[in-house]
Each structure stands twice: as C-alpha cells, then as structure tokens.
Amino acid sequence: MTNLTAILQRNQQFAATDIRRHAPPLPFLPHRGLFVVCCIDCRVDPADYLGLEFGEALVARNVGGRVTPAIIQDIAYASFLVEAKAPQGPYFEVAIIHHTGCGSRLLEDEQLRHDFAQRAGYDERQLAELPVTDPTDTVRTDVTRLLAAPQISQRITVSGHVYDTESGLVTTIVDAAAPASAAVEPVNA
Ligand SMILES: [Zn+2]
C-alpha cells in the first residue's frame, strides 16, 4: 500500500476509455500548439485553471516555473524535434506562467536559503535568484531569458503570464514573440 495505490484505480478508469487514442500524430506537435512552463505547486496545475485536456500541450514544471538551464534544454529539444521531423510546423508557443503566493518565496529568507544551500550543496547566490517575489517581474525576466537562449528554435514563440491564486484568473504580461523578432533592430528608424 502506497500513496499511489488508491489513485491507481483512476488509471484503470482512464484505460477503459479511448482518450489516449486522441493523441496528436507527433507528440511534440500538441493539439493546441502550447508548451506551458509553470510551478510544481499543487494549486497551480494548468490542467485545472486552463482546462488543458489530453494531448493539448507539453507541460514542464519546476519550483516557480523558472526558466532554468534544464527547462531551456527541454524546450530546445522539443523545438529541435519539430525542426527535424516536421519542419513545416506548426511550431509551438511557450507560455511561461508564474503565480502569486509562490512557495519559492520562502527562499527570500536568508537563513533558510543558507541552511538549504549548506544541507544540499547548492550555490546560495543562485538560490537567491529563484524566488518569484513579484510574478509580473520574474515572468518578464524569464521570457527575455528564454528568447535570448541560442539553443531554442527561432521559429517558436514565447509569452509570459501571471496566475492569481486568489481570483483564479490568468493575466498576460508579455505577448507572444519570436526570438528573431525580439532580437531584430528596427530598420529605417
Ligand atoms: Zn509556486
């Protein structure tokens, strides 16, 4: 008996349906053309507040929904697969969603941050960059960081949003833009 035992009964119910048959032909071309990056917090599952259904989006979650080297690698890989296997696309949009009241903010506490760094061997300065203190600010930072990452396909787009855990509403902070257009200087200015 584990914590998963009772939940596994739901798997039997799932397997009894044909939902899994509704997969996109290529799993890196999800039905809604979305790659969502968000926090691991159990209150902020995009399947709940965006109503994401089977096969509609790729989803990567970490503490805060921050654009880390590991997240960049995942997006680079998925976007490379589109370039390599389905170059005509459609290419996905990465929607980075940060949220209010994020547990990453506990790392704002210097002592707790120090203790965690000591305990687990992490770099204190890097940990200091993790907290989603103001999600409007951090999501802008992460959109810029991802658009500037040379590893990702130039043909995907990136947008930034904040999910409010009180109202349940998502607000768009940064509209979708492609890495190339973000880097291009205006001509004939
Ligand atoms: Zn969070």
Summarize the structure in short.
With 189 residues, the chain is α/β, with parallel strands linked by helices.
> Under the CATH scheme, which architecture would be assigned?
3-Layer(aba) Sandwich
Strand order of the largest sheet: 2-1-3-4-5
Specify the structural class. alpha/beta
Rg from alpha-carbon coordinates: 18 Å
Largest sheet: 5 strands, mixed
Mean pLDDT: 95
Give the helices and strands as they follow along the chain: HEHEHEHHHEEH
What percent strand? 15-25%
**Helix residue percentage:** 25-40%
Output the number of helix runs.
Answer: 7
CATH topology: Beta-carbonic Anhydrase, Chain A
Question: What would you call the shape?
Answer: globular
Number of DSSP E strands: 5
* CATH level-four homologous superfamily name: Carbonic anhydrase
Protein architecture, described:
With 189 residues, the protein is an alpha/beta fold. The chain has one domain: 3-Layer(aba) Sandwich (Beta-carbonic Anhydrase, Chain A). Helix content is 35%, strand content 18%. The protein is built from seven helices and five strands; from the N terminus they run αβαβαβαααββα. A five-stranded mixed sheet has the order 2-1-3-4-5. Residues 39, 41, 64, 99, 102-104 line the site of zinc ion (ZN).
